Amino acid sequence: MLGQIRSDRVAAARLAGVLAVREQRQAMLVAQVAARRGRAQAALDGQQSYADSLSKKVSSALQAEQSTSNDSPAPSAPAGPSTGSHAVARATVAGHGGTYAVLTTDPKSYKATGLKFVGKATWYGNVRPNMRTSSGRAFDERDFTCAHKTLPFGTRIAVTYGGRSVIVVVTDRGPYGAGRVVDLSKHAAEVIGLKSAGVGTVHCEVVRPA
Q1: How far is residue 40 from each of residues 3, 35, 178, measured CA to CA in Å?
Q2: Which pLDDT does position 79 carry in this prediction?
Q3: What is the DSSP letter of 143?
Q4: Which of 11, 68, 170, 204 lies 20 to 30 angstroms, CA to CA, from 54?
Q5: pLDDT beneath 50: ranges in the chain
Q6: How far is it, in rounded angstroms, from Cα 161 to Cα 83?
Q7: What is the spatial distance between Cα 31 and Cα 28, in angstroms, rounded to a whole number?
């Protein structure tokens, strides 16, 4: 009987030791996950801060460039593709060498401003009927438009993804996800192949009609 008690105590001690080791390992894993999560959040916060500061710089530079140009400044009211035409044409950009898809109602020649930024892009569509954007313009997912946090309404941005490009007009505000710099209309996302991906890294450049 005494021997059985001792055997049970030894087994219990071994089990307690195994459980203690497992608890230590679990605690280490939890700490590692928390550390990784903290680093990831810090990276996202840094990326968001960079995107926000870059947006302000781009907006300021664009306004300065417009004020010294002989061309008309970008209008405060939305100016860009008409919602009456959704056909795709090609346009060249002077000083850039790129070719972009635009609506047939847009100018066919643009000039690069040198104002560039990179970040994540998404697209939005399937919105409620007659939805109004922040600019007051009715949203049409078939137009080449986008949402940007700070650039003036009417600003044109050449957006490149996977070697394909499109010119979109800023008519709305957003996106507000971490690291995201532009929200494209459904049609614009389709043209550059971003619709199926949902989200992707894009290279953007502000352009103006030549």
Answers
A1: 55, 9, 11
A2: 40
A3: S
A4: 68
A5: 69-84
A6: 24
A7: 5
